[in-house]
Amino acid sequence: MQLQHLKYFLQIAETGSMNRAAELLYVSQPSLSKMISGLEAELDIKIFERNNRGVALTEDGKKLYMYTKNIMKQFDLISKISSDEIPSVISVSAYPNLIPADLLNRYYNIYQGRNILFTLRESRISQIVEDVSGLSSEIGVLHINNAQSKEVHRLLDYHDLEFRLLAEDTWYAVVGKNNPLFYRESVNMRELLEYTVVRPPDDYFSTLTTYLIIDSVSLSEFQKTIYLNNGAAIISLMQETDIFTFSLWLSHQDYERYGLRVIPIENCEVTVEMGWIKRRKERLSSEAEIFVGLLEEHYKK
């Protein structure tokens, strides 16, 4: 199968006529018919049915048309890769609520009016590592607590990923006005046990966190839990109910803009590394370097 054969197939499918396609392609009609017969034999399908008006795609032919159209679109992008027609691309995978809205606003303003494709995926640690190592994302942004640290860094080494530390932090409780703890200067873990905690769905590394003990309270004692992977829904729940979440002080500005409070947890000795990852020995694109620069500026501040 050759790329040219696929181009010929598309022309026939879109004109609905072998003769008309031959005219447009400047080839003979018998040559096109022979090419289609060869393609059908190679794929072991029937591509066209003849009718009074010309030819029509079979069901298998329709599938082939859809896939071929996508292939030709990607080939067209590749052929223009050195031109300004192709947008610059940056893809980031991040732990939920680690990319502040202000940073995204600043990044948008830098590229406003320019051709850029930006993708942000919010995921847990396992998926972030998979995205970056599998080339789905150029960089990942995550935080690692002391219960996860050894296992996560081992996984990063296994996938030949490099971790760059941005800041260190600990856990805080985030509550809305419907939670009786809202006006407190600090809270303790025993008090938090009374309320439902909302957090993203578990992965292997989040299960390691259940072994943490804070002020004699194990995280496994929190039985009332809601799992959500939608930042807007989590914030809405905390605004409207007494639900709370654990978070970092590093993210306090994004919570406070929605009327939520980020409150210290008494005797909390959890240590958290917050940073970003990339494929080791691989140079970042200029778009990713600017994004990382904004990250470093925001979190070191």
TrEMBL record:
One of its GO terms (cellular component) is protein-DNA complex. Pfam families: HTH_1, LysR_substrate. The keyword Transcription regulation applies. It comes from the Bacteria. GO terms for molecular function: DNA binding; DNA-binding transcription factor activity. Keywords: DNA-binding, Transcription, Transcription regulation. Residues 1-58 form the HTH lysR-type domain. Belongs to the LysR transcriptional regulatory family. This is LysR family transcriptional regulator. The lineage of its organism: Bacteria, Bacillati, Bacillota, Clostridia, Lachnospirales.
